[in-house]
Design a protein that fits this description.
Elements (H helix, E strand, L loop, with lengths): L2 H11 L11 H21 L6 H28 L6 H30 L5 H26 L4 H25 L1
Helix pairs in contact: 2-3, 2-4, 2-5, 2-6, 3-4, 4-5, 5-6
Length: 176
């Protein structure tokens, strides 16, 4: 199998994903992972006297490293046994893992607002944590309903993921 055939195989393996909701289940999984990871970083990095800018910088760098590792792992998984051009594997890896970037966007945006002084530091940190809880509650609800689950199952999944976000928020309170 040459590089072009492997590239077609990689593309075809992801072609069956439902694209009406983002880029399918992998993007949803990445978004949830991104939110959980950025909330954990914010919880661990923030202290009572920390500036939103310091927490923002730490969270951006940590999120970039996490995303880069996922892109690299995706590249390795998609490269297969044959020789495939790295550019094609890199593009596929970035596309597959972009959900992580999408997941960290809102919490980081709120921290950025604190960094530039539009909201005070404490509120920026608190609101960024709570934005993650809200997202962790809404994403499963929308996704599960979209995939045909009943309201009861969708709400149960939504509540379970929201509790994860609450647990991370609680961890921040305990740590500090």
């Amino acid at each position: 199998m040459n590089g072009e055939e492997i590239g077609r195989a990689v593309s075809e393996s992801h072609r069956g994903h439902d694209r009406r909701f983002g880029r399918g289940p992998r993007a949803v999984a990445g978004a949830v992972y991104g939110i959980v990871s950025v909330l954990a970083v914010i919880a661990g990095a923030s202290h009572f006297d920390d500036s939103a800018g310091r927490v923002f910088a730490f969270a951006v760098i940590s999120s970039a490293v996490i995303w880069a590792v996922h892109v690299y792992a995706s590249m390795l998984a998609d490269s297969g046994p044959g020789v495939m051009p790295w550019r094609r594997v890199l593009v596929a890896g970035v596309r597959h893992e972009i959900g992580i970037v999408e997941g960290v966007f809102v919490p980081l945006l709120i921290l950025l607002l604190g960094t530039i002084g539009w909201i005070d530091d404490g509120r920026a940190i608190t609101w960024s944590m709570w934005s993650g809880v809200v997202l962790l509650t809404l994403i499963p609800l929308v996704w599960l309903r979209h995939t045909g689950r009943s309201w009861a199952r969708s709400l149960a999944g939504s509540a379970a993921c929201g509790l994860l976000g609450l647990g991370l928020t609680w961890m921040k309170v305990l740590l500090h």
